[in-house]
Amino acid sequence: MENGKYSNNQFDNNERKAKAIWRNIGIGALALFVAVLTVVVINL
Amino acid sequence: MNIGQKLSDFWTKFTGSAEIIVALSVSVLVFAVLYFYMIRFLLDNKSGGLVSIFVLSMILGAGIIALSNMNSAIFLVIPAIYLVILIVLYSVELKRIIWAHMNMKLADVKHAGGRSYDEEKVENCISEIIKALQNMSKSDTGAIIVLSTGNIPSQIIDSGVKLEADISSELIESVFFPKTPLHDGAMIISDTKIVAAGCFLPLSQNVDNIPKDLGTRHRAGIGITETIDVVSLIVSEETGIISIARAGRISRYADFETLKKTLNKYYWQELESVRK
User: Cα–Cα distance between B246 and B261 in angstroms, integer?
Assistant: First the structure.
């Protein structure tokens, strides 16, 4: 196998992991906003 | 009662006692977890539009209920409707998640990991698989081979005959030779072993993106890639065309280079990632 193949994969993996974390944070924030909205509305 | 007064009453109630604070916080947490998985699932399935509609309808619904004298519990109808839509529209994807996380024990992954990876052996496996596919293509012998990383549910392997044999073009061609008992099912390859043959695969539910001229074998080859992260190699019985299916999509007319690239990726990247 050529050298460098793993290092490229490693780089891709790190980048992918960072993207996935930010994506989950974004989804979490949106989910929290809608959850707060739901709880406030049903308790009005 | 106007919206300002309603919110002020809510705030008084909210800050009234510790019990109410805890109850409301738990409710927020439960809803947040539910929405988190719902939104992530929709985004994973390329349905960002549905997420926008969901959030907008929640905001709109909240506005309508806050401004009118409607029973506020009606608001829960909106997430309930979305939950039903999600279950109905994405039954296949939900099945995939259940399979992957909770369901039946997955086929033994261990033999994919911990084994010394012999480059020569892998190259041999790759060339044997390609040789078999090309021979079967020349003789118009139908075949379906699934490259698994040990993630095939055990009920699929149990539907065929377990082989646990070394990969050889002769064995692959023999299995798919017409009129033999195993030729109609799928062969499951994991690592450098033929795990099973004659296995039944779930058929693709996608009627729009699959050309009408593709038969059951192709639909089974695509179907398994819709529910599990595997690659299928399919040889058409009618035309001898070799196709590669992945993630519910099929690419036809695979030549030597494409097959080699796919198999190299399988052995050197996908199996490697399972080992880590």
Answer: 14
The distance of A9 to chain B (nearest Cα, Å) reads 8
Domain residue limits at A2: 1-44
CATH of domain B110-275: 3.40.1700.10
Residue with tokens 């949106």: A30
B45 Cβ neighbours under 8 A, 6+ residues apart: B90, B93
How many Å lie between the alpha carbon of A36 and the closest alpha carbon of chain B?
6
Q: A38, A37, A12, A25: which is closest to B39 by C-alpha?
A: A25
> pLDDT tens digit string along B120-173?
888 889 999 999 999 999 999 999 999 988 778 877 888 899 988 999 999 999
Give the mean model confidence (pLDDT) for residues B174-195.
90
User: With 50 as the cut, is the pLDDT of residue B228 above it?
Assistant: yes
Average pLDDT over residues B206-230: 82
Among partner residues A31, A41, A43, which is closest to B39 by beta-carbon distance? A31
Nearest to B24 among A1, A32, A39 (CB): A39
More confident residue, B109 or B96: B96
| Angle in degrees, CA A18, A22, A26, rounded to 5 | 170
Mean pLDDT across B187-197: 90
Task: Tell me how far apart the alpha carbons of residues A11 and A18 are, in angstroms, rounded to a whole number.
Answer: 11
Q: How far apart are CA B87 and CA A10, in angstroms?
A: 36
Q: What angle do CA B222, B227, B232 make, to 5 degrees?
A: 35
Q: Nearest-CA neighbor of B224 among B261, B185, B176, B167?
A: B185
Residue A43 phi, psi dihedral angles, 5° rounding: -105, 5
pLDDT tens by residue, B69-78: 778 788 888 8
**Total count of domains within chain A:** 1
How many residue pairs bridge chain A and chain B with CB atoms within 8 Å of each other? 79
pLDDT score, position B276: 56
Q: Where are the domains of chain B?
A: 3-89, 110-275
How does DSSP classify residue B74?
G
